C-alpha cells in the first residue's frame, strides 16, 4: 500500500506553527472573546417598524416658513404629504431655491410611483431643511457670481464708451453682447459683437472679458491714424484723451468730456473724488493714484494713466480673489475639524483633505456638492474574533452580522449603510439614518437598539441621537446614547444594546469585554458580505501584517474562494480554514486542483510556512492526501506525495542529503519517481510498495 503515516517531526513543526498563530489570534485576557463567534443572525425585518407616520402640522408649518412662501394656511396644512411636496415644488422660488425645488420634484416622482414610500414625509420632516441650507450657501455664491458678471459688463461697456443701463448690465451675457452691437459706434467692436452674438456661452464671455477690449483699441488706433491726417498734434491730443477714457473705464466709469481735457495730475485727482476709489475694494488703485500724485514728474502721472491704474486694478482683483478663496478654504477647514472631532465621518475628512490639497475649483466643489455626498458610512465591530461584522437591520431589532456568502464572488451585505446626519436632538452629536429606509434611524428602546421610523417627536429625536467619544478600548469611536447617558452602543450575542458595565440589563453582561464591544470602526458604506477569507484577515493580526491589504476582489470558482493580497493569496473552501499561500507555490497548488485532486477532496493543513533550514517554503495537505508542496529559490516549486514523501521525511526533509525536490512526482516503468536537489531520486515500486533512494549518475556523451 502506497500510503503511510507522515513522519511526526515536520507535522509537529506544522502543529507548533498553527499553535503559534492561534496564540496570536487569542484575545488578551482583558477582552476574553468567546472561543467561537455567535451564530450569524437570520432575523426577518419588521416592515412596520420603518413605516413613517405622516408629518404633523407643526412640521408642515416649519417647512413652509423655511422656503419663504408666506404663512402655512389650510391650503398647505390640509394636504397629504405627497401633495404637500408637490406644492413645495410648485410654489418655491426657483431662483433662490433651485436645489430644494429639484429635490421636491425628485421626491414627488418617487411617491407617485410608490405611494407608501416614506420619502415625502422624510422630506418635510428633515430633508427640506437640509436643502434650504444648501440653497442659502449656493444663493450667496450666485449673488457673488452675478456681482462679478455685472462688474465685468460695466467695465466692458465703459471701455467701449457705451452708456449701459440696468437692463443691459443685469441681463445675461448674450443680451449684453447684442446691446453692444446695437449701441456701439466703433465699427470693429460692432462687427465683433455680431460675430460673438451668434456663438455660445463661451464666445459671449470671451467677448466681454477680452475681445471687446482688443477691438475697441483697434477702433481707437484707427481714429488716431485718421487724426494724423489732420496733424500730429491732433493725433497726440486724441491719444491722450483715449488713454484717460481707458483708465477711467477700468473702474467702470465713462469719463465725461471735461475730464479728458484736464492735465494728467488733475485727471488723477478727479478720479480720487469718485465713489469707486472710496470703495475699499479698489485700495490698490487708490494707493497707486496717491503715489503718482506724490511725484512731481509728469512721466509718473502719464504712466499711471497708461498702465499703472490697470495693473493696480489687477492687484485688487487678485487680492479679492485670494480673500474669497481663503474664506472658502477656512470653511473647509472648519468642516474638517468638526468631522475629525466627531469621529464618525471619515469620508468627509478625507474629501476635505483632498479639497484643501487641490485647486480653488476643488474647494468650491467640496462646499457646494461633495460634502453632502459623502455622509454615508458603515459601522464595523472591533472585538477580536468578530471583527468584520457590521451593524445591520432592515427594521426593528438591530444586529451585527458578517452576512452569508453566496455562490459568487463579493456580494453586497445590504441594510448596513447609514447616513450620518446631525443629531436630531443635539447638533453636537449624530443620528444614523438607514439609507435603505428613508426616515428611519437607529434608536434606543428599552435598552435595545432598533431601527424605527421617526415620528418627529422630541422623545424619538433624543432616543435616536448618539454622541461620539474616543473609543473605550483605545481605538475607533464609541457612541454614547443621548437618551441614556453613560450607556453606549454595544453588541452582545450579536444583538445591539445601549449597554453599560452595571450589569443591570442583558446588554450589560460580560463587563470584562464591554469596552471593546462598545468600540466601532467607521468604514466605507455599502460593505460586502464578510466571507471566511476576510473574517480571518480581519481577526488575524499576524496574518494581516504578513500579507498586507487586499489588492483584488474576491473570486469564487467551483466552490473555492480566493483573494489576492499585496504579499500573498488566501484560499477557502467549505469545511476548511482559510489558508495563505504566496509566490510560486500558488501556481503549483492551482495546477494540482486546489482543494480537489483527481476528484478527491483535500484540504490545506497549515499556511505556507518557512522551512526549518530558513531557505525554502512549504505547505502540507491533510494527512489523507499525504501531499506537500516545497519551494526554494534554486529548485522552484514542486509537490511530493505518499510513500516517496514519507521516505524523504524519514531522511530529514530538505535538511537531508537529498535537499529540496527538483521535480514533481512522475511515472516510470513499474512505478513513480521524484528527483531531488543534490543528484538524488526516490522511486516507488507499484508492485511491492517499496521506496528506493539512489544517486543519479551523469553519463558523459562522447
TrEMBL record:
Secretion signal span: 1-32
Keyword Coiled coil among UniProt keywords: yes
GO BP of this protein: L-arabinose metabolic process
Coiled coil: 217-244
Cited Gene3D superfamilies: 2.80.10.50
Transmembrane segments: none
An annotated Gene Ontology molecular function: alpha-L-arabinofuranosidase activity
Alpha-L-arabinofuranosidase B arabinose-binding domain location: 381-522
Highest taxon above the source species: Bacteria
Keywords, comma-separated and alphabetical: Coiled coil, Signal
A UniProt-annotated Pfam family: LGFP
Name under which the protein is recorded: LGFP repeat-containing protein
Organism: Kibdelosporangium aridum
Origin organism lineage: Bacteria, Bacillati, Actinomycetota, Actinomycetes, Pseudonocardiales
